[in-house]
Amino acid sequence: MAMPDSLPKSVRIVEVGPRDGLQNEPGDIIPTAVKVELINRLADAGLSYVESASFVSPKWVPQMGDATDVMQTIERKPGVTYAALTPNLKGLEGAIAAGADEVAVFGAASEAFTQKNINCSIKESLERFVPVIERAREANIRVRGYVSTVMGCPYEGDIAPAQVASVCRDLFDMGCYEISLGDTIGVGTPIKAKKMLEAVAAEIPVEKLAAHFHDTYGQALANLYSVIEEGVAVVDTSVAGLGGCPYAKGASGNVATEDVLYMLNGLGIETGVDLNKLVQTSHWITAQLGRANGSKVALAVGCE
Ligand code: HMG
Ligand code: MG
């Protein structure tokens, strides 16, 4: 049977495990060497974009406190983009000094979440990003823009698609080359995802959008399929489904990279990622962290 014409031929996977996956890990600070080996292994598995660190306040997110060491110690595989989160100019300067290839600013469609996550209003956050984007442009560094809570907020509940579209539009107009749509607490369902995407795609070309779906309610793969059908061809994922957000109570990890890869492979969509290498990395990192593997595919394939 032929695949539907609406599906893209290839999808770019943005691996966020070393950042989104590890930022909320409870317990001891994960050794820098483990973070570095994880990033190196992910690049070796064929991931061409690895969000590797976060230049945020270590008081707010202690697990990312070694961002500079991580960025300076990883092997730089040619063709791989090693990116970092930068909430303000201080973070951007740190990321530039540490050699980040790309950075990301992160806002939200919900006032309450913005306040809890980055300690300011939506309007203030956008004002704060203006000099970050300008300075990054001077340094020839591309800026990605995240918008959190696109399908619901842990504090405000439902968020109107028009509100999501408005914040996305602002970030895009300010110079973010791509907008990543975060279902931060994984509350979306497929039709909701489609409606949210339609509202955003009415403002921004769909090829400039990425889907960043957490899997708290087990809906992420279904939601992803529904937006891929609408033309989204960039997907954020986390190896072993690691992660959560420290300011989103109950949020679990991003959809697992292995699970997305298995689905895309089945759809005949190219990614350039080696599933077996990825699965072995998944088992390795969960053993390092002493936690259960959040990827069904990793469990099905098993450990070599
Ligand atoms: P603030 O307290 O309002 O900032 O925090 P401030 O400017 O008043 O500074 C307070 C202290 O932080 C000062 O230190 C600064 O130097 C320091 P002190 O004088 O008290 O010793 N500081 C920094 N240190 C290191 N790097 C920096 C930095 N900036 C200030 N860049 C701030 C505002 C944004 C800094 C804080 O709220 C913060 O760091 N928040 C980070 C929150 C975060 O990382 N959340 C997780 C990532 S977002 C996410 O996971 C969602 C996403 O995955 C998408 C989705 O799923 O929806 C992207
Ligand atoms: Mg996230």
Quote the distance from N terminus to C terminus.
33 Å
Helix fraction, binned, reads 40-55%
CATH architecture of the largest domain: Alpha-Beta Barrel
Sum up the overall morphology in one term. globular
Topology as a string of helices (H) and strands (E): EHHEHEHEHHEHEHEHEHHH
Secondary structure class reads alpha/beta
Number of helical runs? 12
**CATH superfamily heading of the largest domain:** Aldolase class I
* CATH class bucket of the largest domain: Alpha Beta
- Beta fraction: 5-15%
Bound molecule kinds, no repeats: 3-hydroxy-3-methylglutaryl-coenzyme A, magnesium ion
Q: How many individual β-strands?
A: 8
List the uncertain runs: none
Rg for CA atoms: 18 Å
Number of domains: 2
Name the average pLDDT: 96
Quickly describe the structure.
The protein has 304 residues and is α/β, with parallel strands linked by helices. 41% of the residues lie in helices and 14% in strands.
Structural notes for this entry:
With 304 residues, the protein is of the alpha/beta class. It has 2 domains: 18-83, no CATH class; 101-255, Aldolase class I (TIM Barrel). Helices cover 41% and strands 14% of the residues. It contains 12 helices and 8 strands. Helix 3 (67-73) links the parallel strand 2 and strand 3 (81-85). Bound molecules: 3-hydroxy-3-methylglutaryl-coenzyme A and magnesium ion (MG).
